[in-house]
Amino acid sequence: MNIILFGPPGAGKGTQCDHIAKNFNLYKVSSGNLLRQEVKNNTPLSKTIKSLLDKGLLVSDEIIDTMVEKILFDNTINNRLIFDGYPRNINQVKKLDSLTKNIGVKISCVLSLEVNKETIVKRILGRRICAKCGLIFNEYFNPPNKKNHTCGDKFLQKRSDDNADTASDRFETYLNKTFPVIDFYKKLNIHHQINGMAKIDEIFNEIGDIIASLEG
Q1: Residue 216: its pLDDT value, please?
Q2: Which has the closest alpha carbon to 125: 142, 138, 108, 110?
Q3: What is the pLDDT of residues 173-194, one digit of tens each?
């Protein structure tokens, strides 16, 4: 079973992906994580990636696709993947579709979190990330406490680009680039729209029901 999860920045994709991966024993594939891991491994490709990131430039589709291709050729995980925000555009969709067909695996379902712009901005402004454990919290919707976060408040950080203007721009960019992607999967009848405005556990329960129906 392979799943794709979409949603605008701040919609809670990372949180839901973590829950899904843990509860359904799936391997999380995030382009951001792949890039960071590639740089950490100090491969020949990592030098190009680091140079682009240091300059604030976007990494090309070709580089992202190359890293995803490595994942898909790993037979130990290539049929239990959850993609976090990939593919991001129609070119990546076509590449992923070609790769999965060549390898003989398939995308089981595509989930998209639907959240309005006002909520997205609030979620981004309230987002805090623990520099120690990597957990993501939100001052408004999922505040850290002693039960859900033991590292301490001193490790909680706000991204430098988490501001209202950037949040608005990200939302519009997502809409423009992702709608064609979602339309592609709608035509395959594997797309499911999720109410991303609900509480975290309610969203996960809705997603869990869909995944359970696929397993059945």
Answers
A1: 58
A2: 138
A3: 888 888 899 999 999 999 999 9
- Does the structure show a pLDDT above 80 at 53? no
What is the DSSP code string of 33-82?
A: HHHHHHHHTT-HHHHHHHHHHHTTPPPPHHHHHHHHHHHHT-TTTTTSEE
Identity of residue 171: F
d(CA 33, CA 8): 17
The domains found in the chain, sorted by start residue, are: 3-115+178-215 (3.40.50.300)
